[in-house]
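Shipment paperwork, digital attachment
Item: protein structure file
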Amino acid sequence: MRTWAPSDVTRGQLSLAVCSVICVALHPGFVLKWDEGGFSNYGIHAKTVVPYSLGFLLAAFYSWKAARELGSGVGPVRVVSILLDANSVLMVLALLSTYWYSRSVALKEAHGVIGIATMLFEPLVALWCFVQLRGSTWDLTLLAIAATGLVLAAIDFLGVLHVLFLAQVLTAGAFGFLLVHAVTRLSRPRDPHPESSPW
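Attachment content:
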């Protein structure tokens, strides 16, 4: 049965990537500096709030849509459908919490919790995707990049270096590629009667 899930996941990840590049191009000073901030800075400024919001909304929508395309499924297909729904929820929560996080300590902490949840979710899902794909060298490289992003996020959290944006880019980028690859592989119809190759 044909499914548009791989295309939807790809659209979502590309939308987030393109909108992120637009945000950085409009105001590189938020993140491209030694004492860099996080990507959330783009959600509270008039110049970048539209592409920022659009990126998260499209990523959430296409993740949700891909989960619907895969249906209930069984085994790994069911798991990846749940993961896509979880990703969609995290995208929406991250977006909504961005708008008000600078208004109070409580809101900032709530946004921080969502950010930490996302930073843990993405490399863990990347690891799951790698296992399902039975890892090629390219997939292993992506997994290593996601792990590096997680380590950098921990370093930033501990206040050793302020490298949150770099951590977010590495983790989200590797996660996106592995997710697309895994959804593509898992949604591919299998031949119930495979024939032996004469070669």
